[in-house]
Specification:
Length: 87
């Protein structure tokens, strides 16, 4: 049971870092059009699109990735609480 918890916990942690890297790629021209940028886009955009439906960008700033990372953080906390009952 603990190995399943650790697998899910670290998967969410890695996914959070992938979103952060994807956000920083927008600061560099052409980075998202590279093969690594397109791969990260296919991984991150479906999750980020959920939040972009509800949180519109303010001017040139998109706050939806920040909210998405917070939701992942709280999901990791909830995962720990859920598995805490079983371990």
């Amino acid at each position: 049971m603990q190995s399943l918890y650790l697998l899910l916990y670290y998967a969410m942690e890695i996914y959070s870092w992938l979103i952060i890297i994807y956000i920083f790629m927008s600061w560099f021209p052409g980075a998202r059009q590279s093969s690594a940028g397109e791969m990260l886009g296919r991984i991150c955009e479906p999750y980020l699109e959920i939040f972009r439906k509800f949180i519109p960008p303010f001017g040139m700033i998109d706050f939806s990735p920040i909210v998405a990372i917070f939701v992942l953080h709280f999901a990791r906390i909830g995962l720990g609480t859920f598995f805490g009952y079983f371990m």
